[in-house]
Amino acid sequence: MRSPQVEAASGLPEQVTIYEVGPRDGLQNEKTVVPAATKVEFIRRLEAAGLGTIETTSFVPARWVPQMGDAEDVLAGLGPDGRGRRRPALVPNERGLDRAEELGLTAIAIFGSATETFAQKNLNRSVSEQYAMFEPVVERALADGMWVRAYVSMCFGDPWEGPVPVGQVVDTAERLMDLGCHELSLGDTIGVGTTGHVHRLLEALGARGIGTDRVAVHFHDTYGQALANTMAALRDGVSVVDAAAGGLGGCPYAKSATGNLATEDLVWALHGAGVETGVDLEALVETSVWMAGQLGRPSPSNVVRALAGA
To answer: Where are the bilayer-spanning segments (predicted)?
Structure first.
C-alpha cells in the first residue's frame, strides 16, 4: 500500500499544521557539516512536497553548533522565499536577531529551558537569567512586526535532573509567553513523555490562560512514544505539530536525545484518520530517501522504510 486506508477518527482537528524542523533541528546534530547547497535543496524539496512551514536555520554562533554556521549562505540560496512568515529561524540572543534582521527575516524562534542544568548547558544562563536575555529580543522583534515562537525544552524529563514537575514547565512557558510570543512549542527533548503526561501539561497550561490554540508540540522518539503523544495532544485541541522529515534530529547538548517525530509517520497517521495536512506523502518520502543518501545512512522513519522498500 502506498497510502493508508482513510477511516475518519473522532476527536481530532480537521486540519493539522506541520511545522517542519528537519533543516534546522534535524541537521544540527550531524557530525559532519552538510553543505549549504544541500540544505537549500532539502528545503526546496520539502516545499515541493507541500510543507508550508519550514524552520530553515539557526543564528547561533558557529562555535556552539558548527552545523548551523552557514545560515547566511542557506538564506542567500533560498532568496526571498526564505524570508516569509512561514520560514522562521532560531535566534538565541540580540546578536542573532541582528543577523536575522539584516537578512530580512520576518519570523523567528527563541529557545528556553524548563530546567536549570539544560539552561546552563544550552544557553550558559540560569532559568531566571534566560528571560532577561530573551526579553529585548522579543521586544525588538515584535516592534519590527516579526512573528515570534518560543520553544521550551525539557518539558517532560531531563537527563541530569530526572522528572520535571508540570508546574515548573508551566512557570517557564508563562514567563516566555508573557514576553509577547505568538506561539509556544513544548519540547520533549529526550523523548520520555507519555500520553497522560501530555494531557496533564496541556491542562495545566490552559489553567494559566495558555490555550491549545497557541501551543505546538515537539516530540522526540527515543522511546517510541512520539506519535502516540502527538495524537494525544491533538485530541486535547493542539493543531500545530513539529516534525522532521525522515525522523532526523538530536540535540548537541542532550546526548540522550534521538530523532524527532518523523514527518512521514505523522502524515500517514493523520491522512488515515481523515485529517488534512496539505502534504504529498510520496514526494516527502522521496525527499527523505534523497537526504538519507546525502547523509550516508538510512532514514529511521518507519513509513520511509516501508514505502521506499515497497
So the answer is: none
Q: Is residue 9 part of a domain?
A: no
Q: Residue 184 is part of which domain span?
A: 17-309
Rounded Cα distance, 217 and 199, in Å: 12
The answer as to whether 299 is a domain residue is: yes
> What is this structure's pTM?
0.96
- Domain with residue 291: its CATH number is 3.20.20.70
The per-residue pLDDT for range 84-133, each reduced to its tens digit, is 999 999 999 999 999 999 999 999 999 999 999 999 998 889 999 999 99
Indicate the number of domains in the chain: 1
How confident is the chain (310 residues) per 10-residue block, as mean pLDDT?
93 98 93 94 98 97 90 97 96 96 98 95 91 97 98 97 98 98 97 98 98 98 96 98 92 61 98 98 98 94 91
Q: Which residues are catalytic?
A: 251
Would residue 7 count as lying in a domain? no
